[in-house]
Each structure stands twice: as C-alpha cells, then as structure tokens.
Amino acid sequence: MTKSNMDFPDQAGEFVPEPVRESTGPQPVIRQHQPVVRAKPTQYRYIVERVDESILSSVVLGSATMKTNKLQELINLHAASGYRMVFQIKEQKRTLFLGTRESIILTFEKAIS
C-alpha cells in the first residue's frame, strides 16, 4: 500500500493535501441510459391453394402431368399481391376405382403490419 502526501505532515505539523494532476489522456465517456425498444413480432397471413390434375386425363390415360402454366399463373397471381410461396407438397389421392389423382398443395405467406 502506498502512502500519499496526506499521510506525512509538513514542517509545521499539518498534513499537506496531494496536488491535483491534470489528466492528459482520454476523458471518460459518460453514457446516458437509452430505453430498450423491442421490435414488434412480425405477423404473417397465409393462403393455401390446391392444384389438381385433370380427372379426365387421369381416368383415360391412367396418369397425367400437372399443367405448369396453371401453376405459374397461380404463383404469379399471389406474388403480384405481395405473397411468396413458402411450401409445396405433392399429394396422391385414390379415386373411386379409377386409380390415383395427383394434387400439388401450395402455401403462400405475406407479412402484415
């Protein structure tokens, strides 16, 4: 432990205060408390669409291909109104003694404020 000038009396017997030194280094930064602003959670609106293949072609041909033009039009329609496609799944359903029929289920999402 070091002793300052306050610990030693001068010749008259009084304690001498330590001289004040001016700092030449960087000054401390005083920061004021800022309130915490929490972001509002984003909410979404969803649309689920089902696109089925033609039942006539699936009955006559046994299986049919999905019309890509129909899918493209549906996706572009929802994209124009601010939705984006976030999920798709291909589903096969049995029809009454006629085989199977394919469907594509599309999920679209849009952020709302």
**Largest sheet: number of strands, sense, barrel closure:** 3 strands, antiparallel
- Quote the distance from N terminus to C terminus: 63 Å
Choose one word for the global shape.
Answer: rod-shaped
Secondary structure category: alpha+beta
Strand content: 25-35%
Mean pLDDT: 77
- Provide the gyration radius in Å: 39 Å
Alpha plus pi helix count: 2
Uncertain regions spanning at least 5 consecutive residues: none
Strand order, largest beta sheet? 1-3-2
- How many beta-strand elements? 3
| H/E topology pattern | EHHEE
Helix content: 10-25%
Q: Could you please describe the fold and organization of this structure?
A:
With about 110 residues, this protein is α+β, with helices and mostly antiparallel strands. It has a domain at about 45-110. It has two helices and three strands. A three-stranded antiparallel beta sheet has the order 1-3-2. The radius of gyration is 39 Å and the shape is rod-shaped. The model has no long low-confidence stretch (mean pLDDT about 75).
Short description:
By secondary structure, the chain is an alpha+beta fold. Helix content is 18%, strand content 32%.
Question: Which descriptors would you attach to this protein?
Answer:
113 residues, 3-stranded antiparallel sheet, 18% helix, rod-shaped, alpha+beta
Topology (elements, then pairings):
Elements: E1 43-52, H1 55-61, H2 68-80, E2 84-95, E3 99-112
Antiparallel strand pairs: 1-3, 2-3
